[in-house]
Each structure stands twice: as C-alpha cells, then as structure tokens.
Design brief:
This protein is an alpha/beta fold and 284 residues long. It has two domains: 9-224, Phosphoenolpyruvate-binding domains (TIM Barrel, Alpha-Beta Barrel), CATH 3.20.20; 229-283, no CATH class. The protein has helices at 18-23, 45-58, 78-86, 101-111, 123-127, 129-133, 145-152, 164-176, 192-205, 218-224, 229-248, 262-283, and strands at 9-14, 31-35, 65-69, 92-95, 116-120, 138-143, 180-183, 209-212, 254-255, 258-259.
Length: 284
C-alpha cells in the first residue's frame, strides 16, 4: 500500500458509545480505530458490534481511515467480530495480540479479501515481526505499548528505553515491507508536554503517527507528525538547487552548507507529497 496517506493521529473510539461514534465524524483525525476489544465491557460486546455496523453504514467519516479492532480469535467474540467487520466496509480490520503469521492466516480465513492490520504487543510478536510484516494481507502495524510493557515487566520511563528494542524491531519490519506503522498510546491525556515529547521521539524514529486515547491529544499528534514550514522550505530549496546543478551539468548542489545528493531529493519530494496529502485531507 502507499503510505503517503496521512496517519498522524489514529484515535481509538469505543464501538459501544454512540455519542463517541457520532462525535468522531467531526474530529480532525487522520484515522479512527473503532474498538470492539479493550474499550468495550464484556456485557456490551454484542451491542457494540451492532452499533458499530450501523454507524459505519450511516457513514459521515469523510476521508478518515476507518479501522475496526476486533477481539482476539481465541475469545468467544472474535470469530463473530471478524465476520461482522468483514461486512462493515471498513478500510482495515485490526487484530490484537498478533504473535505469528498463523494468527493473521486464521483471520484471513474468515475475512477473505479484507485488508488487515496487526497489533504488535507480545514478546513473541516482537521476535516474529519480520515474518508478520511479510503477510500478503497486511497493510499496517500498531504498537500496543501498554500490553507490551506489561508482558515485558518494564517500568515506565519518559525515554521508553525498555521498549526501544521492540519498537525498533517492528519499525524495521514495517519499513522493509512498506507497511504503515503507528506508535503506541500516551496514557496521560492531560499532559501535553509529555505527549509532545513522545510524539517527537516516535516521529524521529520513523513512525507514521500516534495512536490516541482522547480527542484532546489530536492537535499535538497532528502537529508533531506534519512537516513543519521549515521542513517544507528546506525541501523546496534542496529540489531547486539539485535541479539547477543537474541542468547545468556542473558542480555539486549545496544548501545551507550541506551537500545535497539524490537520496536527499527523494526525502524532500516525500516531504512535499506528505504536506500536500495533509492539505488535501484537511480541505475535505
């Protein structure tokens, strides 16, 4: 898949909350994970499935990517969730706790041609990340950092040092296979400074965006994962300098005292394409 589609902000919405499902239609998010798993209590599972199907049928979510997170297939709700999600017309179905390609095979056996995403949140999933990323039906990975931290028995640190190996393995796997990859949630939804720092870390590592647990986090994530005006200006100047040297056939392109090579032009054009895609989404 092309990952030029903006995925800066990916908000979890409980499938059981009709008010939240309606409010999401007006939020400036790039993608929504309609959740049938953790955000839905046991006694609401059946009703949530029906409510979500109705909400997606009603539409109104515009250009936002629509992802349905089902319950794991080894639960009593998973298979029915998968069957229902297959028919909801969402852009992708997100499977929790993917530990091997067999998990995705089992889901694909139910969902057919539907595109899949994988929650990466188990130690075995980290060790199998490369094989999981190569699955033919997979388009994206989402880091489940809360569950992963629990499984690894780590302590919280602002620098996320205990999670760096896991984050890196999944990033390598996703980039090797051209998948979208979204960073985990930041739990303190009123701590904008902490969220900004973690978004900046994720952006610098190579994540496409951040999963969010509250609408108050959207603006921070959108800003962090958007090219800045300085980024856009530099990209344009790099392209102009490189094209001028190419046309003349003489010398080496230099911008701000740094040599500009073809690899920098590839990045520059990707920056401008992302900025254009964001502008187009926000216009719609």
């Amino acid at each position: 898949m092309s990952i030029a589609r903006p995925l800066r902000s990916v908000l979890y919405i409980p499938g059981s909350k009709s008010r939240a499902l309606d409010k999401a239609r007006g939020l400036p998010v790039d993608a929504i994970i309609f959740d049938l798993e953790d955000a839905v209590s046991v006694d609401e599972k059946e009703a949530a499935r029906a409510a979500l199907a109705q909400a997606l049928s009603d539409g109104g979510y515009g250009a936002r990517m629509r992802i349905v997170r089902i319950n794991a297939l080894d639960t009593s709700w998973g298979a029915q969730d998968a069957q229902a999600a297959r028919d909801m017309g969402a852009d992708a179905i997100l499977l929790p706790k993917v530990s091997s390609t067999a998990d995705l095979d089992a889901l694909a056996a139910i969902t057919g041609e539907a595109r899949l995403w994988a929650m990466m949140e188990t130690p075995l999933g980290m060790l199998n990340a490369a094989a999981i990323a190569a699955h033919p039906m997979l388009d994206g990975m989402v880091m489940g950092t809360n569950d992963l931290a629990k499984e690894l028995q780590t302590r919280f640190r602002p620098d996320r040092l205990p999670l760096q190996t896991s984050l890196g393995l999944c990033l390598l796997a996703a980039k090797a296979h051209g998948l979208a990859i979204i960073d985990g949630v930041y739990n303190a939804f009123k701590d904008d400074a902490g969220l900004e720092a973690e978004c900046a870390q994720g952006r610098d590592m190579g994540f496409d965006g951040k999963t969010l647990i509250h609408p108050a986090q959207v603006d921070v994530a959108n800003a962090a994962f958007s090219p800045s005006e300085a980024d856009i200006d530099l990209a344009r100047r790099q392209i102009a300098a490189f094209e001028e040297i190419e046309a003349s056939g003489q010398g080496v392109a230099v911008v701000d005292g740094r040599i500009v090579e073809n690899l920098h032009i590839v990045t520059a054009r990707e920056t401008l394409a992302k900025a254009d895609a964001i502008a187009e989404m926000e216009k719609g």
